[in-house]
Write a structure and sequence with these properties.
Jelly Rolls; about 525 residues; globular; 7-stranded antiparallel sheet; single chain
Length: about 525
């Protein structure tokens, strides 16, 4: 017997077992980014073993999405704080007004004595808004609002008092009325004169994004700052009392992952939830492990954001965050699933999923000359690293001057659809790359047509490709590539959008048979 040969094969066999085991561990391990989609400004709480998260969707309606997770890794939408933030010209896209990049910004989420508190602020309304409920998953939410609009605030309950901390650079604190109707007189004070100080004097973005936490009797205030010629940075200030004094330090500088706060698991593990600017797909969440050292939270592994996390594996964002829709509704179904949000406040008289069962009908009710000013564009997120959106639409009832189809919405938007000009219909593609001109037009001689947009976000490639089909099987590329770009005027990752608007005559409509979203490569 050749013992050396047998030993060799045994070693190979054992190595194979080890590799398989390691592969199994990797397959059951979460990875960063946590959510490859635009879910910025997160606030996360844990109630027993269930996690809840709020985020920012600004000018979208309904607004302030609320998500739920049982394992801190995989999330699903469960509701919104409000249907309409405010009714004014900007939120209603009336009289040439709009509120892209504004609406409501970073929220604070708390659970205190059986009540959930979700607060946000808005330059569009000029107010601070607080929504409360006893049932975060089913509502209803009660609204409280007052002026002024407290920038990037954090709500906190301490010693029977309700505090709000906010600011940029200079961080302040104020006490609220018990009924949340406003602030108590003579309670405002400066909490930290220069919260940006830990990153130095050369500053691109002063400390903001306040989130406050209490651990073992001490208070920890998280902020983000951005040194000039540097990257987004996490700053933490610590104090023995909520009113200070506070001492601060840099807590994380890696990959620009910053802004957020602390969350613990039932088993006693700690994480920081943060996000990263990731190009055209938007601002995407990360989790970073935390260890407590000398009463300070130490973020990351050797100061770095890890790729792998000791948490359950990330599942697809479909159907929890985005999802396809056949527009078929049964008794008791929501008219629109939570994955959908309108661009600004909708006119609810101009859309329906019941007038033609199994279809979404978008009707025109006014004249618009700009896509970004058009009412009732229905949207949901694009997702990375790749995603595609596909529609089937019946355009038989369009009127001259109408435009309808599928878009990817940001300031530098792309549209593919049908235009009705005179007595003829055309397949068109339009890319807003400066002049907003129509790139291609092909005459259409049938009423049902299919469109697809494919987005490639890998390594911030940020390219979109456009396709049409006359039978839903054979696809033709059209119009070349749109180089997508995240812009601050819209301040949001790209979204798929279903649109129909009139430029000459009102009263036309189109029927969308389905919207399908995929996270698989599609060519």
């Amino acid at each position: 017997m050749d013992i050396s040969n047998n030993t060799y094969h045994i070693k190979i066999w054992l190595l194979g077992i080890c590799l398989c085991a390691l592969q199994g561990v990797a397959q059951n391990t979460a990875s960063n980014p946590l959510i490859y989609a635009d879910v910025p400004d997160m606030a996360i709480i844990r109630v027993d073993s269930t996690y809840y998260m709020s985020s920012t969707t600004m000018h979208m309606s309904p607004g302030v999405p609320i998500m739920k997770s049982n394992n801190l890794t995989n999330w699903k939408l469960i509701g919104y704080a409000y249907d309409r933030l405010v009714d004014n010209d900007a939120m209603n896209l009336e009289n040439g007004q709009q509120t892209y990049g504004k609406g409501s910004w970073a929220s604070s989420l708390r659970f205190h004595k059986g009540t959930y508190y979700l607060s946000t602020f808005s330059a569009t309304s000029g107010k601070t808004h607080i929504y409360t409920t006893r049932d975060i998953e089913n509502g209803p939410w009660e609204k409280h609002e007052f002026a002024p609009s407290y920038h990037d605030h954090t709500l906190f309950f301490e010693d029977g008092k309700i505090y709000m901390i906010w600011g940029a650079g200079e961080i302040s604190i104020v006490e609220l009325e018990d009924d949340l109707s406003g602030v108590k007189e003579d309670t405002q004070q400066v909490l930290i004169e220069n919260a940006t100080k830990p990153i130095g004097a050369s500053v691109l973005l002063p400390a903001e994004g306040s989130q406050l936490f209490k651990h073992k009797g001490k208070f920890y205030l998280f902020n983000i700052a951005w040194p000039r010629n540097g990257m987004r940075t996490v700053i933490i200030h610590r104090a023995d009392r909520i009113t200070g004094p506070y001492e601060g330090r840099i807590a994380l500088q890696d990959k620009g992952v910053a802004q957020g706060g602390l969350i613990d698991t039932p088993s006693g593990d700690w994480y920081a939830y943060l996000f990263q600017d990731s190009g055209a797909v938007g601002r995407i969440p990360y989790l970073v492990p935390v260890k407590w050292v000398n009463d300070w939270p130490v973020l990351g592994k050797n100061g770095k954001v890890p790729k792998e996390l000791n948490l359950p594996k990330n599942e697809s964002l479909i159907p929890g965050i985005v999802n396809s829709d056949q527009f078929e509704r049964k008794s008791g179904d929501a008219m629109l699933p939570l994955v959908w949000q309108f661009n600004h406040n909708p006119n609810n008289n101009l859309w329906s999923v019941s007038e033609r069962p199994g279809y979404l009908r978008l009707k025109t009710g006014r004249i618009d000359t700009l896509f970004t000013q058009a009412k009732n564009t229905l949207t949901q997120r694009t997702i990375g690293p790749e995603s595609s959106g596909t529609i089937k639409v019946d355009v038989a009832n369009m009127r001259s001057g109408d435009f309808a189809g599928l878009a990817i919405l940001q300031q530098k938007f792309g549209q593919i659809g049908v235009s009705f000009e005179g007595s003829k219909k055309y397949i068109f593609i339009r890319k807003n790359e400066g002049d907003g001109t129509f790139i291609s037009k092909i005459e259409l001689k049938q009423d049902v047509v299919y469109f697809k947009i494919r987005c490639d976000f890998k390594k911030r490639t940020d390219k979109a490709y456009f396709y049409y089909s006359l039978d839903g099987k054979n696809w033709q590329s059209i119009g070349g590539v749109l180089q997508m770009q995240y812009t601050l005027p819209h301040f949001m990752g790209y979204r798929f959008g279903l649109f129909n608007y009139a430029t000459e005559n009102v009263g036309g409509y189109v029927d969308f048979d389905y919207f399908k979203i995929s996270d698989k490569p599609s060519y």
